[in-house]
Amino acid sequence: MLDINWKDLSFSFMETNGMFVAHYKDGQWNQGEIVKDSYINISVASTSLHYGQQCFEGMKAYRTKDDRILLFRPTENARRMRESAQRLMMAEVPEELFIRGVKETVRANQEYVPPYGMGGTLYLRPLLIGVGHNLGVRPSSEYLFCVFCSPVGAYFKGGLAPVNFVTTDYDRAAPNGTGKAKAGGNYAGSLLPHQEAVDAGYADAIYLDPATHTKIEEVGAANFFGITKDGKFITPISPSILGSITKYSLLQVAEDIGLEAVEDDVYIDKLDDFVEAGACGTAAVISPIGSITHKGKKTVFFSETEVGPKTKELYERLTGIQFGDVEDIHGWTEEV
Predict the structure, then answer these.
(1) Cβ 73 vs Cβ 32: under 8 Å
(2) Catalytic residue among 182, 215, 247, 310, which?
(3) CA-CA distances (angstroms) from residue 229 to 17, 117, 259?
(4) Which residue range forms the structural domain that includes residue 44?
(5) Per-residue pLDDT tens for 169-224?
(6) Is residue 7 flagged as an active site residue?
(7) pTM of the full predicted structure?
(8) Rounded distance, CA 97 to CA 23, Å?
(9) 10 and 147 together in one domain
(10) Are residues 142 and 212 in the same domain?
(11) Which three-class secondary structure state does DSSP give residue 17?
């Protein structure tokens, strides 16, 4: 038996039984295997270290009430990694290899999937990096695809409770840049504005569109959504926003519960249109937004202390599907 206090899990790394590693060389991928280690050995001249040839995914494995283990829309993660690889001129990971790597990682670490009812999950991090002896600014000819995992608790310590955000003058990504790719460099650039927001007493920073700074793009490392007085679920649309699998799932779930779901511009000076708001993504699932402060003006949504009814319903419906408690009418879950 593992000596883990499941109720007190944080969102942090924990050593497990190992990870899946596959190598691309001479124009093809090998079969890959589980490696009982949490370290990789790469050349100091790897393109991932110098030129940012790296991308990753975030996924979770969920234990159900009847002790099954489910993945949520893994083919969408495989698709998104291929799209990121295309943008960064990296070798694409075939869907079969991606799914097999994820499932083998879960099977090798199934005792680390938290028990049902504890609120925890097994977080999975597939990553793709350029490796090998390289010097000039050009794509690598060698790549590593790895999948490691760690049991985690809630991303925000308060769980499903409203948190407050503030806008930042920093840009997350440029127009026609790499914002749509899940590239490591996009996250490195977000560390400073995140810290400045936290130091000012907020959960994270909200990024506005880089061209005009008039529209919401992303909420820290998550996507934004708002619910209007007339029953619309609205989430921002932009070519520089990462296509969140959670966001697109919520667009469907919103329709399932009777909301009109749309992707549209969300103007920062029209926040009063929303009666509820939230941040969504694999890590946080949904984090209700209590307020947003922009240029000194604070807009409070449903409440700074209580979760709005529609946000709560969306959360319970989506997590219910993920944990096998709600019928999966869309065929989103896949058993390991």
Answers:
(1) no
(2) 182
(3) 49, 34, 11
(4) 6-152
(5) 999 988 889 999 999 999 999 999 999 999 999 999 999 999 999 999 999 889 99
(6) no
(7) 0.95
(8) 11
(9) yes
(10) no
(11) coil
